[in-house]
Amino acid sequence: MKTFFKSKFFKIISAIICVMIALTLVLSLVGSKIAPQSAIIGTIISPIERVTGYVSHTFSNFFTSVERAKILEEENNILREEMRHLREKLVEYDQYKSENEFYSDFLEIKKEHPDYQFEPAMVVSYDSLDVYKTFTINRGTAQGISQFDPVITADGLVGYVSEAGLTHSTVMTLLNPNLSVSATDNRTRETGVVSGDAKLVADGCCKMSYLSRSSAMNLGDYVITSGAGGVFPAGLMVGTVTEIGQESADVSLYAVLRPFVEPTGLSDVMVITSFEGQGKIK
Amino acid sequence: MKVLFLKRHKNALTYLFLGLILFILYLYQNVNTLPSPLGLIPAIVVVYVAVCGSIMGEYVGCVMGFMGGLLCDVSAPLSYCFNLVVLTAIGIACGFLGTRLFTRRFVCTLTLSFLALVVYFILQWLVVGVIFGNEGFYYLLRYSLPSVLYSLLYVLPVYPLVSIINKRIS
Could you tell me which of A231, A75, A208, A99 has the C-alpha nearest to residue A154? Predict the structure, then answer.
C-alpha cells in the first residue's frame, strides 16, 4: 500500500485531481457553473452521446412497442367493446329519432281527424317477385288490425291490409289492379276509381278511371279519397294527375296519377284501424 | 514486431481497452433507456470501477476511477469534481482490498461493489442532496439505498467481462 501511495503514478493522479479541484473552485468563485475538465470532455463526447442516444432510443422504442403490443391489444378490445355499445346506442338513437319524426307527422293527421285510431307498424319485408310492391308489416289481428284497414304514411295513402295474420299483415298498394279506391279531384270534386294498372306500374303510377267526358281535371290536380265505400276515410291524399286520356273501350276519360307515397323503400307506416264511417256505403 | 509492440505497450493498451469499455458503459448508463423500476437508476460506472479495482488491483482501479469520475462529472448536476474524487478513491480502495484481503474472487467483487455503491450513494446523497440540495432521509431510503441493490445486479454481466480481459492480459 505504501508503495502505491509513494509511487509516481499516484502522485501524478493526485496532482491532476488537485489541480482540477482547484480550477473548479476558482472558476466557481468567478461565476462559472461548470468545471473546465467537464466542459472539455463534455464538448468531446456530446456528439457521441447524441448518436448513441439516438440509436438506443430507436432500439428502445422498438422493444417498447413490442412490450406495449399486449397492452394495446387489451386496450383495443376494451375500445371495441365500447364502440359496440356506442354503436348500439346510436342505432337506438336513430330509431327513436325516426320514430319521433314519424309520430310527429301523424300527430297533425290525428289532430285533423280525431276519430282515426292508428296502429303504427313497421315494414318487415317486400314481396320481391310482386311488381305491385306488396309488403308485409309486423302487426296483425293481435294488435287490432283487420282486413281492408287503410295503410297510410304522413304523405298519403299507401294501400290497405289485404290479409291480416295474428302478428303480421300483408299490405296491397295503390299500384295493384286488385285494389280500388274511390277518389275525387280536390279542385273539381269529380269522382272516379283509382286502381293499379300493369302498363303504368313500371313508372310507379296508377290509374283513375270512370271520369266523365266533360271532365275539367287538369294535370297537376291533387286526388284524394272520397270516403265512398267505407273502406278508406275521406280526405286521404292519393296522388297527383300526370296525364289525362280517353279510354279505348268506352267514352269515359281516365287520369294517370303519381301516388304521393312511393311504396318502395317504406320503413314505417300507420294502419287506420278505425274511423268514422268505416264499413258504411255512402 | 507486432508481439514486441504489444509487450511494450501492454499497460497502455490495457488501459485503453478498459477505458473504451468504461466509455461504452457510461454511454449506456446515460442514454436513459435502461429499465428504471420504481424510478431507480443503476450506477453502472461505479460498478465497473469497483469490479476493475477488485480484480486488477489499485493501479487499474485508480485509472478507471479517474476516467469514470471525469465522465460522470460531465453529466452530473453538480460538478465540483465529486465523481472524480469519489470514484478514484473507490477504484483505489477496491484495488487494495480485492487483491489483498479477499481470496474468493466473485464474492470479493460482489462485496466490494456493494460497499462501493453504498459509499457512493450515501456520499452522493450527502453532497448533492443534503449539503447542496434540500433532500431529507426520504430520498436516501427511497432512492439512494434501493439504487445500491439495483446497481449491484450489474455486477453479474460486468464481472465476467473484466475477468476475461484480465485473463487475456495476464
Answer: A99
B 9-28: CB under 8 A from A: 23, 27-28
Handedness of CA B39, B44, B50, B54 (dihedral sign): positive
Chain A nearest CA to B141, separation (Å): 29
- Min CA distance, B140 vs chain A (Å)? 26
Enumerate the domain spans of chain A: 118-274
Q: For A169, phi and psi rounded to 5 degrees? A: -145, 155
What number is the ipTM of this complex? 0.74
> Tens digit of pLDDT for each residue in A76-89?
999 999 999 999 99
Ramachandran angles phi, psi of A35, nearest 5°: -70, 145
A10 Cβ under 8 Å from any chain B Cβ: yes
Q: What pTM was computed for the model?
A: 0.51
CATH homologous superfamily of A118-274 equals: Rod shape-determining protein MreC, domain 2 (2.40.10.350)
All 3 cell numbers of residue A125? Answer: 319485408
DSSP A235: T
